[in-house]
Amino acid sequence: MARIEGIQEKDASLFIRLAYWFTKRSWGRVMEGVKIAAHSPRLLLGTGQMEMAQQKLKAVDAILVALAELKVATMVGCPF
User: Could you tell me if 67 and 39 are in contact, meaning their C-beta atoms sit under 8 angstroms apart?
Assistant: First the structure.
């Protein structure tokens, strides 16, 4: 449980309700971190922009990702 209570949807501004809607659409529910970040709309906006940029970032080829996963699995002794 967080020390700060998140902003409930009934008490939220239009921008925060829109952020809640996008979060529900993506994850099925509003995450507690989003409710807490809603106390500062600029922080919520910045966090949202960062999350969207990270989702769209495709800097490494899928083949290299698979090879890296295989190397790490062998290094830690994963049987799968």
Answer: no
* Burial class of residue 44 in the structure, from the number of CB atoms within 10 Å of its CB (0-12 exposed, 13-18 middle, 19+ buried): buried
What does the pLDDT look like over 2-11, one tens digit per residue?
688 888 888 8
Is 32 domain-assigned?
yes
Sheet strands (E) in the chain: none
Residue 29 lies inside a defined structural domain of this protein = yes
Structural domain total, the chain: 1
pTM (global) more than 0.70: no
Number of separate helices (H) and strands (E) present in the chain: 4, 0
4 is a domain residue: no
On whether residue 3 sits in a domain, the answer given is: no
